[in-house]
């Protein structure tokens, strides 16, 4: 993990778009996903970890599904329910990311209470995280010729969190696009990271 400090808008532009020119399509298209934080000290802990709820993950999600409106999600898959739970503020192992560095910059700068502190924009190369995936998950990406999962694609390999966590002895994280639950998710070019354990350290990045 490298740490780049910028002191101007130009330096920031150069940093987030570095090596993003794709000659094959004649466009700037980054292979990174981004996450903005108003304080550099925030790190990449999930709401399960910051609340010390890792051991209660399954119970929290089960209760959420029990009391939610039955039609709240399209497709009765745990990955859709997990997305909705995250969206509604339930502690989960998911983290919000975006394809857009400008959305990340917004979340790093919008809170004026932290203007006297350094913000952070986390950038992760999803091609490298994909290289760490178990073979069944990599095979799904190759079959669909994509780099980012959908909930349907995850569900074709693992239908429960327990199955997902048991797929490999090695730690890994994948990125997936949630269902379009509302316009906010669409407008923010949102996606989630899904680690292979509720307690997985952010050091994997």
Task: Characterise the protein shown here.
The chain is α+β, with helices and mostly antiparallel strands and 205 residues long. It has a domain at 52-99 and 125-204. The protein has ten helices and eight strands. The strands form three sheets. Strands 4-8-7-6 form a four-stranded mixed beta sheet. The longest helix is centred in the first third of the chain and has 11 residues, at 57-67. The protein is globular. The model has no long low-confidence stretch (mean pLDDT 89).
Search tags:
205 residues; two-stranded antiparallel sheet; 4-stranded mixed β-sheet; alpha+beta; single chain
Topology:
Elements lengths: L8 H8 L4 E2 L4 E2 L3 E6 L9 H4 L6 H11 L10 H10 L7 E4 L2 H9 L10 E6 H6 L3 H10 L4 E2 H5 L5 H5 L7 E5 L5 H5 L2 E6 L10
Parallel strand pairs: 6-7
Antiparallel strand pairs: 1-2, 3-5, 4-8, 7-8
Helix content: 25-40%
Whole-number mean pLDDT: 89
What is the β-strand count? 8
Q: How large is the share of residues in beta strands?
A: 15-25%
Helix and strand content put the structural class at: alpha+beta
Radius of gyration: 17 Å
Poorly predicted runs: none
Distance between the termini: 7 Å
Please summarize the sheet with the most strands. Answer: 4 strands, mixed
Q: Strand arrangement, largest sheet? A: 4-8-7-6
Backbone shape: globular
What order do the SSEs take from the amino end to the carboxyl end, as H and E?
HEEEHHHEHEHHEHHEHE
Give the oligomer, counting copies of the same chain as homo and different chains as hetero.
single chain
Number of helices: 10
């Amino acid at each position: 993990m490298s740490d780049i400090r910028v002191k101007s808008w130009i330096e920031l532009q150069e940093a987030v778009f570095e090596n993003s020119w794709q000659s094959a399509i004649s466009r700037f298209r980054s292979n990174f996903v981004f996450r903005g934080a108003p304080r550099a000290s925030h790190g990449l802990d999930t709401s399960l970890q910051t609340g010390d709820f890792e051991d209660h993950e399954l119970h929290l999600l089960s209760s959420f599904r029990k009391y939610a409106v039955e039609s709240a999600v399209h497709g009765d898959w745990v990955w859709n329910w997990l997305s909705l739970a995250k969206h509604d503020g339930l502690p989960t192992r998911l983290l919000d990311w975006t394809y857009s560095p400008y959305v990340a910059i917004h979340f790093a700068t919008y809170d004026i209470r932290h203007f006297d502190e350094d913000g952070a924009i986390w950038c992760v190369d999803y091609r490298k995280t994909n290289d760490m995936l178990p073979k069944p998950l990599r095979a799904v990406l190759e079959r669909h010729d994509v780099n980012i999962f959908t909930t349907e694609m995850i569900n074709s390999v693992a239908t429960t969190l327990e199955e997902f966590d048991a797929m490999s002895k090695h730690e890994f994280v994948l990125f997936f696009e949630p269902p379009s639950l509302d316009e906010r998710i669409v407008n923010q070019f949102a996606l989630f990271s899904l680690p292979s354990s509720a307690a997985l350290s952010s050091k994997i990045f």
